[in-house]
Structure formats: structure tokens, C-alpha cells
Amino acid sequence: MPLYLSYTLFGVFLLDDDGKVLVESMIFPDSATAVEDVIALNLGNPTEALKEIVGTLSDKSPDEIVVEDPLLARALSSVTEISVRVDDNCSVIKRFRTGHDDHLVGKGIVESKKQATSFRREVALLIAKAAISTASEEKDILIKHAIDAIGELDKAINVLTMRVREWYSTHHPSLSAAVEDQETFVRVVQEFGGKTQFREEEILALGIPENTVRSIIKGLTGDTGADLSDLDLAVIRSLATRIMDQYAMRSELEEYISTMMIAVAPNITVLVGPLVGARLISLAGSLKELARKPSSTIQVFGAEKALFRSIKTGTDPPKHGVIYQVPEIHSAPYWQRGRIARSLAGKLSIAARIDAYSKRKIGEKLKTAFLKRVDDIKKQSPEAPPPKPPKPPRPKGRGGPPRGRSKKKRGRNH
Predict the structure, then answer these.
(1) How many Å apart are CA 352 and CA 72, to the nearest integer?
(2) Same domain, yes or no, for 237 and 276?
């Protein structure tokens, strides 16, 4: 004869065909144990309460044990040789659950149904907190926050650097034209301040290329900027110092991400580098979410606006998203980039799945296969293809003739 097993937050209950409780192993009122048991069962692992029930089965000699949950069946099968069957619509267990609170009150396990509800709420909150804590410990979430912080720093640095360029140009306009690199410009302003303080040897000591230094010194001759007071220049230099602090913070974050990516996603890191890999993880939400995405989605991650615009207007879809930053793509001719991006996205899809669900390291193998594919694409398409004929304009609205009878102008009857 079969027996039925119901697992609740209050304990484990072994039932007969009539729904009568034969054996019970209680957890209540220990909410911490209830949380541990729920987490263990979600992983398919047996709990102490379950093992205690299994210890009583030898006296019952059941043909099989019926449960509702496959995970509970897996945990039960690991501690008993009795056949376990899953029935998610078992009338015996459902009937027991309906009168579960009455059973608890009748046995004196809880004082009232209100207390039972309160216990369930307490356990549910603890399970939610445990889930949040576990998610917060995932290293890929930390990588996501770090790469997002770099993105926000880049925005702040660009805005503030443009402000310094415009502000300092009232005093030394030729410097902005001579120094295109943002970080170099800010460092020069921070170190020297007024244009009368510029010395060629001192600028070279900062590690700035000689051709740039010559352009700076040449621009001093005939410079049309206004003279600024020491107070004005001090404020500008102070702002430049704050920007350089942000550049230093960005470098620290890059080092942190590189270290984390080698540990969390080594195969992705070998393929596209730590920063591009971290950006892909951030756009997907997590490493496991990235592993679930098809290669076609990975290929255009970061180009969602262009993709939706192409769907709406009928223009060509984007060939790549953030993976454009990979040298093999952005250095290739435009007519080769789509095929190279598609090949890289396929390799990334494989790398993400291995990083998420395995410890194997095949990044070098994937990288070698990708580079070989890049060489093949360059050999197959060395020349630009002929231009495509322009597409005919799309009809306005939904297209097609209007429905219904067309209205004809009525003439006057004379």
C-alpha cells in the first residue's frame, strides 16, 4: 500500500490513504531550522526531519511513497530504497494541506491559526533575506556594480573635462587644440596652471609625447588668451585635481575588475578582455543570464536602440554592440565586421556557459579558433562589396488600399 508524505514549514507528515497522520517530525517553533530545511530541499538534499521519517518506514512496509514535489522526491530517494512517485495533484496531500492548520491546533502544536500564519510569515521573510544575501555574495554581481561605476565615472570625467577645457581656454586657448587627449590635458592644467609657467623640459617629464610638447610650446607664441589672477587659476587647477582623482579611481576599478573577471569568467576574459566581458555581464544582469542568451543577442548587446530603430524603420540592423571594442572588430574594414562579430558572439556564448556552469578553461582554444576565423574572413572578403541598391520607401501607415467602399463625390441634381 502506498503512503503519502507532506513537507510543510512546520515539519514532515506521513499520511495513509485516508489522510490520517501516521508519523510526524516537527520543526516548529524553530524558524531558523525551517529556513535551512527549505533551502536544503530546494537543492534536493535530505533534512534531519526527513531522515527521521524515513527511519520509521521499515515498520510500515509501503509499496511506494507519494510526494508532490520533484525536489522532495530526489531528497527522499537519496535516503531510502523505497519507490518514490511524484504526483503534483495528489488528492490525499491536498486534503491534508487544506485542514493542516486545524490539525496543528488540534494536536496543540500551535495555539491558534493566527499563530500558524504568523510563523509562516516569519519563515517567508527569513527565506527572502537568505536569498538576497546569497545573491549579494555572487561575484558577478560585484563585477556588474564595478563596471557600472566605471561607466558613471566616464560620464562625469567627460563632462568636467569639457568644462575645464572651455574654462581654461579663456586664458590659454591654443592648449586645447594642441592636446586632444582628455587625461593629458587635465594633467597639464593641474601641474602648470598659468601659461607663463610652461617649460618644455617639465612637460616632457610628465611622459607626454614630444610632438605634443612641441605643439604646446609653439602655441604659446601669439596666444590670444586673457590673463587670469592667481585665484582664478587656483580654482581651475583644483577642479583639474579632482578630475585626476577620478581617473585614479577608474584605474583602481579596472584593476579590481581584471582580478575578479579572471576568477569568475576566465574564458570570457581571454576572449574579449576583462572590461568588455564585465560590460556584457552587466548588460545581461549576471553571468548565468549571459550564459542563457543566444549568440545573436550577445552580438548586439549595447546596441538595443539601433536594433529597435531598425525594426521600426526597416533599416539594416546593427552588426555589433559593445563587442565592437574588441580590436579584431573595430580595426577590420566595415564589410568584414558583421561576420567577425557573429563569429566572436558564438565563441562568447560557449565561453559564458562554461564559465557559468563549469570550471574548464578553454579560453585560449576559443581565442585561437576565433583568430583563425578572422583570417579566413579577411581572405574571403578582401575587397569591399558593390553598394546595395537603395530600398524602396516603406508605405505610410499599415500599407495597402483602405478598407471599405471609397466615397464618391456627389453631383448636384438639376
Answers:
(1) 31
(2) no
User: Per this entry, what is the length of the chain?
Assistant: 414
Residue 365: closest CA among 378, 381, 354, 380: 354
Q: Say if 390 falls within a structural domain.
A: no
3-state secondary structure of 83: strand
3-state secondary structure 6-75: EEECCEEEEECCCCCEEEEEECCCCHHHHHHHHHHHHCCCCCHHHHHHHCCHHHHCCCEEEECCHHHHHH
- 265 within 8 A of 203, measured Cβ to Cβ: no
Instruction: Kindly state the cell numbers that stand for 166.
Output: 572651455
Range of the domain at 154: 142-256
Cα(182)–Cα(176) distance, integer angstroms: 9
**57 and 112 within one domain:** yes
C-beta separation of 2 from 17 below 8 A:
yes
For residue 352 the three cell numbers come to 559564458
Nearest-10 crossing angle of helices 139-168, 230-264 = 160
- Is 306 found in the same domain as 252? no
Tell me the torsion sign for CA atoms 189, 191, 192, 194.
positive
Residues of the chain with pLDDT under 70: 132-137, 391-414
65-122 pLDDT, tens digit per residue, is: 999 999 999 999 999 989 999 998 899 999 998 898 998 999 888 899 999 999 999 9
State the pTM of this model.
Answer: 0.65
Residues 214 and 291 in one domain: no
User: How many domains does the structure of the chain reveal?
Assistant: 3
What is the enclosing helix (H) or strand (E) of 226? Answer: none
255-261 contacts at long range (C-beta below 8 A, 24 or more positions apart):
256/146, 257/143, 257/146, 257/147, 257/150, 260/139, 260/142, 260/143, 260/146, 261/143
Q: Do both 90 and 185 map to the same domain?
A: no
| Residue at 30 is within a domain | yes
Q: pLDDT at position 404, please?
A: 53
**Residue 114: per-residue pLDDT:** 92
